Amino acid sequence: MRAAIPLLLLCTGFATFMGRLDTNIVGIALPAIADHFTVGAGAAAGLMLYYLLAIAMLTIPLGVLGDRIGFRRLLLAGYALFTLSSLLCGLSGNLPLLICARWLQGAGSAMMLISAYSLIPERLPLNQVGRAMGGLSSAGSVGILIGAPLGGVLIQWLSWRSIFMINLPAGLIAVWLVWRRLPPDDLSDRERAPFDWPGCLLASGCLLLCILGVERLRAAAGTGEAVVLILAGAALLAGFMARQHRAAHPLFDRGFFADLLYRRGLAVQGIMFLAIAGHGFSLPFYLDRVLGLSHQDAGLTLTLFPIGVAAGSTYAGRLADRLRPSSVLRFGAAGNAAVTALFALALHLGAARFIYVYLPVMGMFFGAFLAPSAKLLLAGGRRRQGLATSVFHTVNNVALTFGVAVSALALTWGTGRDHAASHAPSAFLPLYTMLSATCLLAAILAFRNDRKNA
Fold it and tell me: Structural domain tally of the chain?
């Protein structure tokens, strides 16, 4: 069913805006929430970790559900769940309840984002899809840009609870807009292809157990328990891979990952997103604990990163159309490794305010990586476009989830679970040494891919 671009963008743009805004606005609030519940940075990481975990676990099954019940219904349910869970977050009286509410909020965000990116090609003519997708990306970028400064102002003048309550009026408006203005789904010609639910459950269970295992290591709840959880996750991964080989209708075509360059490209993408998750989790604590910035000033400082990303991705996207995308991609990966190593060195030397150079430069290098990587993974080869897009987003979200978990573990090692120690720049040294090594690994794989493709 066709729809006008302004109405469709209004209904779906809310989804990308709210999803991106919420991720960044909660990031800047982590130090305040940790202080309120008298916990360390590692424990507060659960607010980001389980939100991302919900998105990573539900991306593929929710896409299948939307094909069956219609993406307008899924979008409406997503807005409703996101709004309700935001209320629960704002009313939570302890950290475990807040983390549970955040998981529900992640599930609502997954519904919104999947529906938004599916409704555009479903409801618009092909010659209007590109422009509409650009509008969606712009709405998400606005959410990223204003999330940190808005969160800083709200926490500075109200409380951390206000960052969740602000979602209520926006969510209610979005529910009304979709319910009253967006035409119903047309399900008359939908194909109900079989779905590999056992494979999906195995993959989700693998991800959940591995994340819980890393969390138990961070919480010092017993190395034996953590190892058991991680080994159980590895067993489910083996079961998932075996299932994909013998299932009549596997989640992925058997030849989907046959291309070595494609597999290595996905690995580079995942490693870079793992590193960027570590930055997103740790930087608010660095600005708060080490530099002693107010929440408002910390939020404004963090805008240096998305500004750098916007500048880097714009220029890199043009270069990727003129040059080999792999050459631009490896430049971005190598640059990220170098500048993160310099930041780790600055921490070792006590040069805490190097952060004001680091943030925009790191953003530009990460932006230089994003556009050519997306072009290589989404526009190259003869892979099914829908499946390629789903795999692309799933890899990103899984990497972000693991990035937060591993970074929380590294930061806990640096602080020694001592709140006073977290005020020293050296407390962040293990984390940023790890992040530098992670970016270096991505750069090495990118260079190897470039040679293979030569």
Answer: 3
191 in any annotated domain = no
pLDDT tens for each residue of 59-68: 777 777 777 7
Q: What is the 3-state secondary structure (H, E, C) of the chain?
A: CCCCHHHHHHHHHHHHHHHHHHHHHHHHHHHHHHHHCCCCHHHHCHHHHHHHHHHHHHHHHHHHHHHHHCHHHHHHHHHHHHHHHHHHHHHCCCHHHHHHHHHHHHHHHHHHHHHHHHHHHHHCCHHHHHHHHHHHHHHHHHHHHHHHHHHHHHHHHCCCCHHHHCHHHHHHHHHHHHHHHCCCCCCCCCCCCCCCHHHHHHHHHHHHHHHHHHHHHHCCCCHHHHHHHHHHHHHHHHHHHHHHHHCCCCCCCCCCCCCHHHHHHHHHHHHHHHHHHHHHHHHHHHHHHHCCCCHHHHHHHHCHHHHHHHHHHHHHHHHHHHCCHHHHHHHHHHHHHHHHHHHHHHHHHCCHHHHHHHHHHHHHHHHHHHHHHHHHHHHCCCCCHHHHHHHHHHHHHHHHHHHHHHHHHHHHHHHCCCCCHHHCHHHHHHHHHHHHHHHHHHHHHHHHHHHHHC
Residue 23 lies in a domain: yes
Same domain, 57 and 97: yes
Domain assignment of residue 244, given as a range: 196-248
374-427 pLDDT per residue, tens? 666 655 444 444 456 667 777 777 888 778 777 877 777 666 554 434 566 777
Residue 116: C-alpha distances to residues 44, 72, 122, 185, 362 (Å): 30, 9, 10, 13, 29
Which CATH number goes with the domain that contains 426? Answer: 1.20.1250.20
Model-level pTM? 0.75
Torsion of CA 118, 120, 122, 126, to 10 degrees: -130
Check whether residue 79 and residue 211 sit in a common domain: no
Amino acid at 72: R
